[in-house]
Design a protein that fits this description.
mainly alpha; 0% strand; 4 helices
């Protein structure tokens, strides 16, 4: 079995950096002009999959997500975080109640313990 030579050709160009204003303008074209995303992408020199991504980010998270190219926190993640917060608050409430009960028990045990100074002296001066 002979191995043939394979030549790999790479695009030597750099990635283009899009400003937030450019991204928003291009995404707005897809929303209001009624043209297909592919046509808008071709006209602006953007890969269609990138334009789909920008559009999804903008629709989910607004212009801030598009500007920073960040992902948007999904509803599921938010619900999980809210559930975790509720659980932690519940545990905190339980620990606070335990502390209050222990404080009351300590105060009651101190009140029941007689002190020598509080006892009256016997007549005659000795105990």
């Amino acid at each position: 079995m002979l191995m043939s030579e394979i030549e790999i050709i790479t695009d030597g160009g750099r990635r283009r950096r899009w400003s937030a204003a450019e991204k928003l303008r291009i995404v707005e074209e897809t929303l209001y002009d009624g043209e297909s995303i592919s046509a808008v992408a071709r006209r602006n020199g953007v890969a269609p999959n990138l334009l789909y991504r920008w559009r999804k980010l903008m629709l989910e998270g607004g212009s801030i997500a598009v500007a920073e190219d960040d992902s948007v926190t999904g509803n599921r993640t938010v619900r999980e975080m809210e559930n975790r917060i509720r659980e932690l608050e519940r545990q905190l409430g339980r620990k606070t109640m335990e502390v209050e009960i222990l404080k009351e028990a300590l105060d009651k045990s101190r009140a029941k313990r007689p002190t020598l100074l509080a006892q009256p002296l016997k007549p005659g001066g000795s105990q």
